[in-house]
Fold:
Amino acid sequence: MLVESMFEVRAGATQSDNYRRVSTGEQDGTLATAGFGVDAAGRTPRTEYRAQGDLDWIKYPDNAFDTQAQGYFDGDVTF
Structure:
């Protein structure tokens, strides 16, 4: 069996002095983030898989915008 993998989980916060990105009436606030990164591949006698991704979810203060997922994920499994 061949297995190579990396997986990380992260969480954080970013302070912005203008999170709405407007020219007047700026508002400051903290954006909350949570995400993960993965780079894994493996092979057994019956299967082969591969997964790569880097995704983060971003939550804006006061629900100014919908919570967003940013990044990518790509994977496949062969039987």
Summary: The chain has no helices and four strands. Strands lie at 2-16, 29-43, 48-59, 68-78. Residues 28 and 72 are 28 Å apart (CA to CA). The mean pLDDT is 91.
